[in-house]
Write a structure and sequence with these properties.
The complex is a heterodimer of chains A (383) and B (537). Chain A is mainly α and 383 residues long. Chain A is built from 15 helices and 6 strands. Chain A folds into 2 domains: 172 residues, Cytochrome Bc1 Complex, Chain D, domain 2 (Orthogonal Bundle); 119 residues, Orthogonal Bundle (Cytochrome Bc1 Complex, Chain D, domain 2). In chain A, helix 4 crosses helix 8, helix 10 packs across helix 11 and helix 12 crosses helix 15. In chain A, 39% of the residues are buried. The chains are: A mainly alpha (383), B mainly alpha (537).
Chain lengths: 383, 537
């Protein structure tokens, strides 16, 4: 290969590859530019929300929400056509991260699915009400993780490292910890659009920068806030079956109907992952707070503190994926476990529920009978 | 009269040695020109510290190493893999280029230096480094080369760095997509021009060592052209920045405050990685250069010079150093084997930085990233790797250490590499050749804790099959304590006899006897078996 011809071939090949990549990059840039210029097809939720807040391009912006609430009009600097499109795309990303409503995959929400693992995650699942949850009379709800309220506390100091965390970096943490995915580059349109939307929400709700609002975070439930000390897995499981199973499913793997997520997964490959830095803190205080404020959907604030903690304890002990920071090997092991375990659990549960018909059904499939008939697993299921 | 005569003599001496000195100085200048861009690129794009860290490493690090190491071709200085380790270790802890980050970088360097000093002072530790085999080092170097290419992609595309470090393969893939989709096209153009210039210039043997300089010149000129026509606000190409504040020396202190302690403890694995990576590379480079130059310099001296210079450098705002095989190879090829050449490169560099700081300031970052990518690609040298694929065992070791860099972090890769190296060196010994002929079990190889399981399993199956088993130790050269214990236990059995057919004559001449001789000797031994046995233990 070290002959002059071989050398020349190699150099030409390298140049061709580089040229090809350059042409590809030019093409992709052009495509993206066209995408940013084209009109956005809004999801039904976003269409209603943005119409209610009167989003339109213009020199000034006046929020109908503020007008109705305070009675006094508040005018702020308006948005350009490009700004409006960015806000609309941001709203779409929050409402429909998986792109179920997109006419052309990847066209309206710009490549957000690439950074997410599993088929369930949507920003809306945690940031309730497309990032701005309100009750029937239009009051903002406490502990709903509002994006508008997050934006006005935009650059927060991380409570663990003491580092200044810009809003964009906080979105990165969402991608890694909550949506169990990969980080987009911080200069990515995805991050910019969500920032634009959050910023718009804060203007529409007339939230002031630097202020603390109740809907920004969840009110955390510490052990001292409960009467019964300690968390009980059995209690949590019973409560889950009573309150949560209807939506999230028997094994908490979420419910998907006609390709759309009805209820997100709390366990299994599609759930949020277990690598969050504040994992224990999250499970013991933040998650219960979130459950109390936002769950069950439509009957918020009906669970007491202890119940929320029990449920949080139960669901956080369900199998969930590892993240990149735990290394590819652990991620692979978890992925394997989560593929193998669910059908096994299904079998044991069905065997435990009705042994007679279960055995009859299993009789048709000999493999299942062997798995379902193991006494150890039955005992484990019964617990 | 005397002083005059002396002066005359000196003049003659100077005149005699002047051509050689001149040659040394020219080589020094070449080295300085080659090292400068590397030093800047390593510190800025890999380690995340200001450029003067790399430059001081190339000045003071090179001087220390040259003074302490008697080898004539030894060239220390900033190193790719070590700089990358600093970045990987510290990026999760603090924002790069900040005061805290720099303090941690110095602490990391000092800890690495102290660990290296331990390797020098504790002889067996230093000796362990010799057990690290070539496939392990080559595998790691190739892995790091590929890793560097991935890592510079974002800078190449003019994109901001994501600060948290994930699995390298994902970084690579996501960075490539990000560069294609949202990369700064002006930055990409500058990087491409640098890369293409370098690759083309490299093809000419005479210009090979200057390729990097040509590339930097081309990239900088193009970026200047873009800035002149479009304005820096439109091109948004990042530049190195002003270096004119760099003097001869910049004293500094590593960060060891009480608040920083948790982070300092967190970077200990990084320090171990840094120390080991440096020593691996130094020892490997010394070993190869010894072979190429034809002389011999003890690698222990190189460990000493590395350790001492790395202990001193953190107090001079400098990156840690280790041997650079590329630059050592360059010194060797330029044909001058004198430490003056290398020492003068440090002084040349100082002059360059003092007088050309304004020129260095406008070098664009994408150009630097392109240079790093090229260096990474050069680390993967097919000629070095090819021999490893001829032997299956070497192939496995090479691939494992190569993949471990990509699949695990660098620390994991260092651990895997060391374990593999030691396993590799012990594997052959752990499988003694055992054959059973009739009722004689013949052992060829060593009897030690590693080979005992193999020996015992064969022994027990042989005992089950034959009566009055004889174990022949004629080709057994080494027995450790555990082997002796096993022998003692085995000797207690009534159905086993030990024999050693080596005679003094055999050992002296190293030749085998004929079958007839052996029979005769065996007959002679049978006459006085008790004495033989006693003499063995």
């Amino acid at each position: 290969m070290s002959t002059p011809t071989g050398k020349l071939t190699r150099v030409i090949l390298l140049l061709l590859v580089m040229g090809g990549l350059y042409v590809l990059a030019t093409h992709k840039h052009k495509q993206r530019e066209e995408l940013r210029q084209s009109t956005v097809a809004l999801t039904p939720g976003c269409e209603a929300k943005l119409a209610r807040y009167g989003l339109a391009a213009g020199e000034h912006y006046q929020s109908p929400y503020v007008l109705a609430k305070a009675g006094a009009p508040v005018k702020v600097r308006g948005y350009s056509e490009a700004d409006v499109r960015a806000i609309q795309r941001g709203c779409n990303i929050i409402d429909d991260t998986q792109g179920h409503f997109a006419r052309v995959a990847g066209a309206e929400r710009w490549n957000s699915k690439r950074f997410i693992r599993g088929s369930h995650t949507s920003c809306d699942h945690c940031h309730q009400g497309i990032g701005d949850k309100q009750d029937a009379s239009g009051n903002r709800l406490k502990g709903s993780l509002s994006l508008g309220a997050s934006w006005v506390m935009a650059d927060m100091y991380d409570r663990f490292t003491g580092l200044l965390l810009p809003y964009e970096l906080r979105q990165m943490q969402c991608y890694i910890n909550s949506s169990n995915g990969y980080k987009p580059n911080i200069a990515d349109d995805l991050v910019r659009d969500v920032t634009a939307y959050s910023r718009f929400l804060s203007a529409a709700l007339d939230l002031k920068i630097g202020n603390h609002y109740d809907e920004q975070g969840v009110d955390e439930i510490a052990a001292s806030a409960t009467i019964k000390q300690g968390d009980d897995y059995v209690r949590g499981e019973a409560l889950y079956k009573e309150k949560c199973q209807v939506c999230h499913g028997r094994q908490a793997f979420g419910v998907v109907a006609e390709g759309r997520v009805v209820a997100p997964a709390l366990a299994g490959p599609n759930a949020w992952n277990m690598q969050s830095r504040n994992y224990f803190y999250y499970v013991s205080t933040i998650l219960p707070g979130f459950i109390c404020r936002n769950m069950p959907l439509g009957q918020e604030n009906t669970l007491d503190n202890q119940q929320c903690r029990d449920i949080a304890f139960y669901i956080s002990n369900l199998p969930r994926p590892a993240g990149d920071r735990q290394g590819p090997l652990i991620a692979l092991r978890n992925q394997l476990l989560m593929t193998v375990l669910p059908p096994l659990m299904q079998l044991t549960e069905s065997a435990e529920k009705s042994p007679q018909p279960g055995q009859q059904a299993a009789g048709a499939q000999p493999g299942q009978q062997a798995a379902g008939a193991q006494p150890g697993q039955q005992a484990a299921g019964a617990r | 009269m005397r002083p005059f005569a002396l002066a005359l003599k000196d003049k003659a001496v100077v005149a005699q040695h002047w051509p050689q000195l001149q040659g040394n100085l020219v080589v020094g200048l070449t080295l300085a020109l080659v090292t400068l861009p590397q030093a800047v690129a390593f510190s800025v794009t890999l380690a995340g510290v200001p450029p003067h860290f790399g430059i001081y490493a190339a000045i003071w690090g090179v001087l220390f190493c040259t003074l302490l190491n008697p080898s004539r071709v030894f060239h220390g200085g900033p190193n790719t893999a070590m700089s990358a380790t600093i970045g990987i270790t510290l990026l999760p802890l603090a924002p790069p280029f900040g005061a805290e980050y720099m303090g941690y970088a110095l602490t990391l360097g000092l800890m690495a230096g102290l660990i290296q000093l331990a390797f020098y002072l504790v002889r067996p530790l230093g000796r362990m480094l010799d057990l690290i085999s070539e496939p392990v080092i080559n595998g790691m170097i190739c892995g790091i080369g590929l890793f560097l290419i991935f890592k510079s992609l974002t800078t190449f595309g003019g994109l901001p760095l994501n600060t948290e470090v994930e699995w390298p393969l994902w970084i690579a893939w996501q960075s490539l997509l990000a560069v294609l989709e949202i990369g700064n096209m002006h930055a990409i153009q500058v990087g491409m021009i640098t890369l293409i210039t370098c690759v083309i210039v490299q093809q000419f043997a005479r210009l090979r060592n200057w390729a990097i300089l040509f590339g930097i010149a081309a990239g900088t000129l193009y970026s200047e052209y873009l800035t002149a026509t479009l304005g820096l606000d439109n091109t948004l190409i990042e530049q190195i920045g002003n270096l004119s504040s760099i003097g001869f020396v910049s004293p500094s202190l590593p960060l060891f405050s009480q608040e920083a302690m948790p982070d300092v403890i967190a970077i200990v694995p990084g320090a171990v990685t840094l120390a080991l990576l440096g020593l691996f590379q130094t020892v490997a480079a010394m070993r190869r250069m010894n072979r190429k130059v034809g002389g011999y310099t003890d690698s222990r001296k190189a460990i000493f010079s590395d350790a001492v210079s790395n202990c001193l450098l953190p107090f001079l705002s400098s990156l840690p150093t280790c041997a650079s095989f590329n630059r050592m190879w360059l010194v060797h090829r330029l044909g001058i084997h004198s430490r003056i050449a290398i020492a003068s490169s440090a002084l040349w560099l100082l002059l360059l930085v003092l007088f050309l700081a304004q020129l260095i300031a406008i070098i664009p970052m994408p150009t630097m990233a392109a240079i790093i990518m090229l260096l990474g690609a050069n680390m993967i040298n097919w000629e070095d790797i090819k021999p490893h694929f001829k032997d299956r065992r070497e192939t496995v070791v090479f691939m494992a250490s190569f993949l471990s860099v990509l699949l695990l972090d660098l620390f994991g890769a260092v651990i895997v590499g060391s374990v593999l190296a030691i396993a590799y060196s012990k594997w052959a010994q752990a499988h003694p050749n055992i054959s059973l002929r009739g009722n004689v079990l013949k052992l060829r190889g060593n009897l030690y804790y590693g080979s005992l399981p193999v020996v015992e399993s064969t022994f027990h199956s042989a005992v089950a099959r034959t009566r009055d088993l004889t174990i022949d130790f004629s080709d057994c050269y080494y027995i450790d304590q555990e082997g002796v214990r096993w022998l003692a236990a085995t000797r207690a059995r009534h159905d086993v006899t030990f024999t050693d057919r080596r005679s003094g004559e055999d050992r002296r001449h190293g030749e085998r006897r004929t079958e007839g001789d052996r029979k005769r000797m065996a007959g002679r031994r049978r006459e006085r078996p008790d004495r033989r046995k006693r003499s063995e233990f």
